[in-house]
Amino acid sequence: xxxxxxxxxxxxxxxxxxxxxxxxxxxxxxxxxxxxxxxxxxxxxxxxxxxxxxxxxxxxxxxxxxxxxxxxxxxxxxxxxxxxxxxxxxxxxxxxxxxxxxxxxxxxxxxxxxxxxxxxxxxxxxxxxxxxxxxxxxxxxxxxxxxxxxxxxxxxxxxxxxxxxxxxxxxxxxxxxxxxxxxxxxxxxxxxxxxxxxxxxxxxxxxxxxxxxxxxxxxxxxxxxxxxxxxxxxxxxxxxxxxxxxx
Length: 247
Known about the structure:
Elements (H helix, E strand, L loop, with lengths): L2 H9 L6 E4 L5 H12 L8 E6 L2 H5 L1 H7 L2 E4 L1 H7 L2 H18 L3 E4 L13 H13 L3 E3 L2 H4 L4 H17 L3 H12 L5 H15 L8 E7 L2 E7 L3 E3 L15
Parallel strand pairs: 1-2, 2-3, 3-4, 4-5, 5-8
Antiparallel strand pairs: 6-7
Helix pairs in contact: 2-4, 4-6, 7-9, 10-11
């Protein structure tokens, strides 16, 4: 059964909210996926995560970002195509572009050692924190929760690291950069979102309301409130990790 058949048979009846598009190389890949979903009726609103995994996706990143709803930076596979010393440059650049476009960015492969160990290495802990400070919205765990020995502990550990990083995230600077990038005049809803962030910063509420961003999705303007970093995990044991339907 190919991926299209899986989506028709299992995705459509369960009204999946997200579709991860592996090895996205061109913006046309996203457009074709969206056209396919639109023909399935209930999946016309399904968000598409474009997964950047190779040099082709990297070279066409701006065009892909414009078409996709969300971006996944598959650092493991990118590390194969790119020299190791170049991966961090792409991460910082891609996350900044996602932030300015108001589209969630997902970072993968952060605590691989926790697949078999209860604690991450110091380098991994620092990497998680830096991913938050770089502007990632989601930390996606893979093998650590799929087949790891400590799935719950992994999520808890990564969550604590993210929370500590969020405490020192420069919300004021991020807000100013975003407003400068968006420019003026703002729409009515954009001005409301901007005012909400400014008020949160003034009353030191940033650890609760970390940032608002706006993004145009189809014909509607969506004003979204998100933490600077969230955690997703998946497991074969549904009693250990909760998850949304996603293919």
